[in-house]
Each structure stands twice: as C-alpha cells, then as structure tokens.
Amino acid sequence: MPAPPDSRRVSRGGATSELRAICTRLATRFAALQCRAAFTRLSISARLILLVLGLALPLNLVIVGVIWDLVGRANEVQRTSLLYAARSIAAGVDAELGKYVTLAEALSRSPALLDDISICSRPRRVAHFRSGQMPGFWSPIQMASSS
Q1: 128 with 134: CB under 8 angstroms?
Q2: pTM, 2 dp
Q3: Distance CA 23, CA 1 (A)
Q4: Burial environment of residue 119 by CB neighbours within 10 A (0 to 12, 13 to 18, 19 or more)
C-alpha cells in the first residue's frame, strides 16, 4: 500500500528550518572539535605549562594578597607601638616639667630669694660683675648687652 500523498509532501519552509538547525549543531560541534584538536596537538610539556599557569597564577595572586594584608597589619601594629611609646615619653617629660614648675613656684615665694631679686636689675648685675663677686657668670650677658 502506497503512502498517502500528504505525508510525503514536505514544505519548503520546514525543510529550510530543519537544515538550518542541523547546520548550527554541526558548526558548534565542529568548533568544539577544533578546540579539542588544538589541545591534543600540544606536547606534554606544553600541557604541563598550561596546567601550571592555570593553577599557579591564581595561587600567586592569593599569596600576594595575603602578604599585602600582613604588611598592612604589621604597619598598624608598629604605629600603635610607636604611639604608646610616644605617650609614655610625653607623660615622663610632663612629670619632670611638673616637678620643675612646682620647684620654681616654691622658690618664687621664698622670702630669702625675694630680697635677692634686686640683683637681676642691670645696674646691680654690672656692679656685681665689676666688684668680682660673680666672676665670669655675667660676662656673656654683659657682652650681649654691650653689642
């Protein structure tokens, strides 16, 4: 029994779309085959180099990032340490200066020194220098004031 005439009839548009689909599949498979063929043409040493580059390059980037972070943290720790040392030294200097300020305040109220303050006037300094009571002590002051 012959096949019905409708089943043998293929429309031109349907055949074209099927042909295009087949060509597309063939093109993608051919491109994949070419890529595989290019890889299979490589020697073992070239494949090993590609493997090492593929694995070592990202690993090296991770290592550089970790080192960069460690350097940043070390710098921060060093800054903190220097700040602590600077604050400790500043506190020590402040304490020493505080002692000297307290001593100067106490000496400024001393009745024994209040009488000797008149020595600080210029005529008294010159008189003491000339009389020899303070040899060499006032000479830099007198030389500076005479010039």
Answers
A1: yes
A2: 0.40
A3: 35
A4: middle
